[in-house]
Write a structure and sequence with these properties.
The complex is a heterodimer of chains A (about 270) and B (about 350). Chain A has about 270 residues and is α/β, with parallel strands linked by helices. Chain A has helices at about 40-45, 70-75, 90-100, 110-125, 140-155, 170-185, 200-205, 220-225, 230-235, 260-270; strands at about 1-10, 15-25, 30-35, 55-60, 65, 75-80, 160, 190-195, 205-210, 215-220, 240-245, 250-255. In chain A, the strands form 3 sheets. Chain A has a 6-stranded mixed β-sheet with strand order 6-7-8-3-9-10, with helices on both faces. Chain A has a 4-stranded antiparallel β-sheet with strand order 2-1-4-5, with helices on one face. Helix content of chain B is about 75%, strand content about 0%. Classes of the chains: A alpha/beta (about 270), B mainly alpha (about 350).
Chain lengths: ~270, ~350
């Protein structure tokens, strides 16, 4: 489905991605984790020509994306960004319908079929009652659902999530990933999700890619990748990894160094009394 | 507020009808009273008897003075409004107007040089000089902001402001060293003035504006996507750089063309797009045509007021667009509470 070979990218001088190669199978749910600046978002954006890497190739369904027009690519790959800043007041339905644009002719307006698909996408994301509201009036969580609906209206085979739940509360994070997982299992949607939340990645992903300084540090099942030593080595942070009682998958607990010695702990205990 | 073709055609036809009414009213109003009834009789009795009750003076006033002025005002209003929409959307900035890239100052320098040198007396030399100024500014600003084949929006804005201030300084210099009656012409030009409209100008300007607006309208839907973010537009299949380049150049050119015949008429390109957004929403497939068509009526109306309000003295139309436009805009802003 996705094959990346020897991909390297730099914005100016420093290489952000270095000689990355991997493949993603159809219907796979791949998580991409790694510290800030490890190249996660850059990697994602290199897969749909948002960025054009200097070296290496990306093949989607066996075709080099350099030989594909953007419109063709947009029918295969949908992307949900971290957040959207839309200055002018578009309605929710209008934004979701924009997902149909790779299928529209230059002047043609959306037809019955496009409306049906947009409505379906809005139903899946629980947005039907918001259809006529302006996107600027919505809360962060609702707006994020609009972006998901827009990506779904593209009817993509692959969906790229770029920290799509970073600004959502716990309920909406879980709801978001549940929806994506359902589509992944029922419709065979291929998913590649960049996230900072290692626990979410552990629960939902078939495989996880751990990026470090622009290279793939390791890639495999959550059990293989999420280990105390890997996290310590790549993130330079101490964590506790045990087993999630619900899923049997690795669970990460953060260790705060300020609380690990006695002195500061007593200070923390005293705090609530103030 | 979802847009379809029927809605676009319907609303456009209504606005065309509004323009016809505004134009008829405007023809009948002025220092020399012609009278609405006489105009209507002239129009509807056209086939049987074109001169029904019209004197030669009437005919000269209507066909040689008022009609060309109305047509030109309409074209200028439409072009500035459409260009305003394009710049606001490309820069994703509600404050952008057709002059944001410094085109007004550049063309003003050209026009003022023509006025001062006395070349302004010969046919079309002020518009020609002014258009050269506009063209020079566009090339300068786009040249400064270009890196490879890309235009970084922020760099463009900065380049526009800087080049604009540079030319403004030259304008001030030229104004300071001019003393006789030419100063009056300069100030009228700077405030935007339609009093000397000629059919020649209309014939030259109209094709540019029509072709420009068509090119822009063909990119109405990509413009919708670019407004929601350039990266998003890329991911939804838009060749963003190509569309941006084409629209920047087209909108700049039609601005330069109309400024060269009308002078710097402020506020139209800012206020009309906003009024239309408040009423009809942000979808460019509707927004572009309604802005253009409403721009027609808006500037004709403003110009009619400019030449009648303290008749026989005529004001520059730019004075009217700002004096009446600003309060009305504030009213809309307060009422709807949105951009």
């Amino acid at each position: 489905m996705i094959r990346v070979s020897n991909l390297s990218f730099r914005y100016v001088e420093e290489w952000v991605l270095r000689d990355i190669s991997f493949t993603v199978k159809k219907g796979e749910f791949l998580g991409v984790i790694g510290p800030n600046g490890s190249g996660k978002t850059t990697l994602l954006k290199s897969l749909n020509k948002t960025l054009s890497p200097e070296e290496g190739d990306v093949f989607i369904n066996g075709i080099n994306i350099k030989d594909m027009r953007r419109r063709e690519l947009a029918r295969i790959i949908g992307m949900v960004p971290q957040e959207a800043s839309i200055v002018f007041p578009f309605s929710v339905l209008e934004v979701v319908l924009m997902g149909r644009s790779p299928y529209l002719g230059r002047l043609s307006f959306e037809g019955e079929k496009d409306y049906a698909i947009a409505r379906e996408a809005m139903e899946m994301t629980d947005l039907l009652s918001f259809a006529t509201r302006s996107i600027n009036e919505l809360s962060g969580g609702e707006r994020q659902r609009v972006l998901i609906a827009r990506a779904l209206a593209q009817q993509p085979q692959i969906i790229l999530l770029d920290e799509s739940t970073a600004y959502l509360d716990i309920k909406h994070q879980i709801a978001f990933f549940d929806l994506i997982k359902t589509l992944n299992q029922k419709e065979g949607l291929t998913v590649m999700a960049v996230t900072h939340d290692v626990n979410l990645a552990s629960i939902f992903c078939d495989r996880i890619m751990l990026l470090s300084k622009g290279t793939v540090y390791c890639m495999g099942t959550p059990c293989d990748v999420i280990t105390e030593s890997n996290i310590k080595e790549v993130y330079e942070a101490d964590v506790l990894v045990d087993t999630n009682p619900q899923t049997g998958l690795p669970r990460v607990t953060l260790i705060a160094s300020s609380l690990s010695d006695k002195g500061s702990r007593s200070k923390a205990d005293a705090a609530p009394q103030l | 507020m979802v847009v379809n073709l029927r809605k676009v055609v319907l609303i456009s036809l209504i606005l065309v009808f509004v323009f016809v009414i505004v134009a008829i009213l405007s023809i009948s109003l002025g220092t020399a009273d012609i009278g609405l009834m006489k105009i209507l009789r002239g129009i509807f009795g056209w086939v049987s008897d074109p001169v029904r009750g019209w004197t030669d003076t009437d005919r000269v006033i209507v066909f040689q003075v008022r009609l060309p002025r109305i047509i030109l005002a309409g074209i200028v209003g439409a072009a500035l409004s459409v260009a305003g929409v394009v710049f606001q959307s490309l820069f994703r900035n509600p404050l952008a107007d057709p002059y944001i890239l410094g085109i007004s100052s550049g063309s003003a320098v050209g026009a003022i040089l023509a006025i001062i040198s006395g070349a302004g007396l010969s046919f079309l030399s002020i518009p020609a000089a002014s258009f050269c100024g506009a063209l020079l500014t566009i090339m300068l600003v786009l040249g400064i902001a270009r890196t490879g084949y890309r235009f970084q929006t922020n760099t463009l804005l900065l380049a526009g402001v800087i080049v604009g201030s540079f030319f403004s300084a030259i304008i001030m210099f030229l104004v300071s060293i001019t003393q006789d009656e030419r100063l009056h012409s300069i100030i009228f030009w700077l405030m935007g003035d339609l009093s000397l409209s000629k059919y020649n100008e209309i014939i030259i300007v109209t094709p540019f504006v029509i072709v420009g607006c068509l090119i822009i309208y063909l990119h109405a839907h990509p413009l919708n996507l670019i407004v929601t973010g350039e990266e998003t537009a890329l991911q939804l299949g838009v060749e963003v750089e190509r569309v941006k380049r084409l629209l920047l150049i087209t909108a700049s050119l039609i601005t330069g063309v109309v400024v060269s015949v009308s002078g710097v008429i402020g506020f139209v390109g800012l206020i009309v797009p906003h009024m239309m957004r408040m009423v009809f929403g942000s979808d460019h497939r509707l927004l572009l045509p309604v802005s253009g068509l409403f721009g027609l009526s808006f500037l004709v109306l403003a110009d009619t007021i400019a030449r009648t309000i303290i008749a026989p003295v005529e004001l520059p139309v730019g004075v009217i667009t700002a004096i009446f436009g600003a309060p009305f805009f504030i009213y809309l802003l307060r009422r709807k509470g949105a951009i």
